[in-house]
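We emphasize that the prediction below concerns an isolated chain of 163 residues; any contacts that depend on oligomerization or on bound cofactors are therefore not represented. The input was used exactly as deposited, without trimming of termini.
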Amino acid sequence: MMRQIFSLLVFFALTCVMIGAARAQEHAYKQSNSIEAIKQEVIRFEAARNRALVKNDTKALASMYADGLLWTNPRGQLLTKDEILAEMRSGTEKFIAIRHKDRHVRIYGDTAVLSAYTTSTVRYKGITSNYPRRFTNVYIKRNGHWLLIVHQATPIVANQAAP
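Result of the prediction step, given as a token string:
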């Protein structure tokens, strides 16, 4: 009789362990899929932002940029949301074509970091360039919407190979 009770307890304990392990695996799978879904959401937001840049749609961009935006351009100038939008409205800066590759996205709760290599064509003060750059964008999610809060672009030196 004791042997049967012991066997039942061992069976019950093993069953609990197996159920717990299965739930943990299922949670990890769901969390992994959730992170991938958020990454795709950020990539779609970035694509919409890029379309607005090329169209020079400053109204759409204003809704995509956080009020505290810090925009560091490849010349090392730090611009606010109002300043970068004013440059676009005036034609000082015009995005002609956007080409990104080697894109990486990281998710940290309601914050996303996207980094990529770009050879986008940009006209600044009448001079058109498409030299290679790396950029990093930081997004925050507020009220269910992603907003760009930080943009940093850095020119790539001539002797550095493209990805």
